[in-house]
Amino acid sequence: MQNISHYAIPIALVALIVYRRSKRSIGFQKLRPGRLKFRLVVFGLIGLLILSVGFMHPIHFIAYALGLGAGLLLGREAIRHTRFEQRVDGWYARTHIWVELTVLALFLGRIAYRIIAMMTTSAGTTTMNPNDPMQMTRDPWTAGIFFVIISYYMLYYGYLLREERKLEKAAVPAEVENPA
């Protein structure tokens, strides 16, 4: 039997990621253009990396396309339901709770599935190597769900950046007229 400490650190790390992701996904979030731009770049690079590795298994492009389409639909729905609120320290935005929960459930469900699959596969018959960066490309479901998340966040963050600029421009004249 393996030592429990082999699982404690990864489980604690996943719990921290889940906590931060859910805190960032649910409720009003402060619009920070720098962070939004950084996340757009990171998601874009991850998407390009996954796409470039996909040439090894061209059939996975179907999962990529389906994930991309589903993410764009979720992003469109999120944009339709986004609400903005101005507070003392800046603009805040939130989208529909069910869109937020759907994206979070996809993310968590896929992580849980991969962990369970790795733990239940016997050591002698496994083809899964968690240290292999190409492992993700062998499973079209994982890549497809990554594309759902990537396309959703890229569309939604791009929208938030555009709206934040409009909101800031609209707020400046009101402050100039009422300097008190």
UniProtKB/TrEMBL annotation:
UniProt cross-references to Pfam families, sorted A to Z: DUF1453
Record carries keyword Zinc-finger: no
| The UniProt record lists the keyword Membrane | yes
- The membrane spanning regions, by residue number, are 6-22, 38-55, 61-79, 91-113, 141-159
Report which superkingdom the organism of origin falls in: Bacteria
Q: Which UniProt keywords apply?
A: Membrane, Transmembrane, Transmembrane helix
State the InterPro entries in the record. Answer: DUF1453
Q: What is this protein called?
A: DUF1453 domain-containing protein
